[in-house]
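In the laboratory, one determines a bound structure by crystallizing the protein with its ligand and collecting diffraction data. In a computational setting the workflow is compressed into a single prediction: the sequence and the ligand go in, and a structural description comes out. We illustrate the idea with 2'-deoxycytidine-5'-monophosphate.
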Amino acid sequence: MKKIIIAIDGPAGAGKSTVAQIVGQRLNYTYIDTGAMYRAIAWKVLQDGLSVNDIEEIITIAQSINIKLNYINGKTKVFVDEYDVTAEIRDPSVSCIVPEIAQVAAVREAMVRLQQSMAAQGGVVMDGRDIGTHVLPNADIKIFLTASIEERAQRRWRELTDKGFVVSLEELTRDIAARDKKDCERDISPLIQASDAILLDTTAISIEQAVIAILKLCEERQDFV
Ligand code: DC
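The predicted complex, in structure-token form:
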């Protein structure tokens, strides 16, 4: 019996991190948000006053950055060195440059190495874009979590409106479509469903239903603990 490895990929706004975090909690597994790792590099790039064109410096940051993902009070906190960047990595200034940074080959190589070492012991739920295809091709369970663009934009709109932001649904829909295009069309590790991944469309189901579907897949495995 072993603790298994669960890979969850999918486009922005499909609910990956929420679903992956809850699955991790229920199984008492470690949840690893790989998007947060690319965001942490982007945060450091801005901190150091660099731009997305400073490729050599960005690669040096990716190869030397000290990122920690700590689980505190039911939430994953992201640290760079000892500094808590959990909130700052979600800032629009970071979101804006992270796709450029995530397409630098040497940056991805450094992150993939780190992600593979984090998953080496098993008992891990990892979410991202290339986990099932590239980072953990031997993951025990692979999920491709998706939802329609309209539904993903609606969710994002509700989330931002609840926080008091005034945003246009049309603009959010356009943003999400643009991010999908960037993620799917980049040369290195584009977002695609692994041939052995299970497609889970959350357009018409709740977070809890998605979580239950994944837990059921785990329970169906004979070697699952
Ligand atoms: O999931 P997210 O929005 O936090 O991801 C941030 C960025 O990192 C986004 O541009 C996609 C990219 N990313 C990636 O290229 N590979 C991953 N495994 C995870 C995220």
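The longest helix spans residues 169-185. Keep in mind that any predicted model is a hypothesis to be tested, not a measurement.
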